[in-house]
Design goal:
Blueprint: H1 2-23, E1 25-28, E2 31-34, E3 36-39, E4 42-54, E5 57-66, H2 73-77, E6 83-89, H3 95-109, H4 112-117, H5 119-128, E7 140-146, E8 150-155, E9 158-159, H6 167-178, H7 185-191
Antiparallel strand pairs: 1-2, 3-4, 4-5, 5-6, 6-7, 7-8, 8-9
Length: about 200
C-alpha cells in the first residue's frame, strides 16, 4: 500500500517536472528556444519567435530576448539592458546569401543620416560575412547587445570579430526584422508576439 502510494507520488512529481521543463522552452519548426536565458548577468525572456521564409522555403528560426515583454517596435528599440536575437538555421545557406540578406535589411530600414554616422561599422559588418563559412542547417548565431561592450555576434558559440560599440548599430540590426520594411512580415509579428495568420510556429 505504502509502496503504491510512493510510486504514485513519484509519478506525479515526474509529470509535474516534465510540464515545467516543457514550459521552459518554445518549439518553432522543430527548434527549441529557451524561455529564459542569462546574458551579462541579466535574465532575459523570450519575447517572441518565428520563421524566416524566403518564398515557400523556411530559412531560419529567429527569437528575440528582452528583460521584459514588449509588443511595439519603439518599445523594443528603447528597451534598457542587454538584448539578444538568436538565429537557428533551418537549411544550408552560403555566407554571401546570408550576408546579402542582412545588408539589404539594413539598407531598407536605416535612414541616410544614420547610415552616414555608422558607415565604418556597417562596412566592417559586411566584411564579416566573408570570414564566415557556409552556414549549415542547425547552426546557431546570436546577436547580442551588451551595455558597456557593444554588439557581439557569435556563431555556434564562437565570437565573430570585435564588438560594434554604438547602440544605434544594434538597433539597425533589429530593424532588419522589426523595421518598416522587415525581411519577413510574419516573422516581425511573431517576434513582437502578435498573432499571425500564416502561423510561424509550424
Amino acid at each position: 500500500m505504502l509502496w503504491n502510494q510512493t510510486k504514485q507520488w513519484l509519478a506525479g512529481c515526474s509529470l509535474a517536472l516534465g510540464l515545467v521543463m516543457q514550459a521552459q522552452a518554445t518549439e518553432v519548426a522543430g527548434v527549441k528556444l529557451d524561455e529564459t536565458i542569462q546574458l551579462a548577468n541579466t535574465e532575459l525572456k523570450l519575447n517572441g519567435a518565428g520563421i524566416r521564409y524566403k518564398a515557400i522555403f523556411k530559412v531560419y528560426v529567429a527569437g528575440l530576448y528582452l528583460k521584459e515583454k514588449k509588443t511595439t517596435v519603439p518599445d523594443v528599440l528603447a528597451a534598457p539592458g542587454p538584448r539578444r536575437v538568436t538565429i537557428v538555421m533551418l537549411r544550408d545557406l552560403s555566407n554571401e546569401d546570408f550576408g546579402r540578406g542582412f545588408m539589404q535589411g539594413i539598407q531598407q530600414n536605416t535612414d541616410k543620416a544614420e547610415k552616414a554616422k555608422l558607415t565604418s561599422q556597417f562596412l566592417r559588418f559586411g566584411e564579416l560575412f566573408a570570414s564566415v563559412p557556409e552556414l549549415k542547417k542547425g547552426d546557431v548565431m546570436t546577436n547580442d547587445w551588451i551595455p558597456g561592450v557593444g554588439t557581439v555576434l557569435t556563431l555556434n558559440g564562437k565570437k565573430l570579430g570585435e564588438p560594434y560599440p554604438d547602440l544605434a548599430f544594434y538597433n539597425a540590426l533589429l530593424r532588419i526584422w522589426l523595421g518598416d520594411s522587415p525581411v519577413d512580415k510574419g516573422l516581425k509579428k511573431a517576434m513582437l508576439a502578435e498573432p499571425d495568420d500564416r502561423s510561424n510556429y509550424r
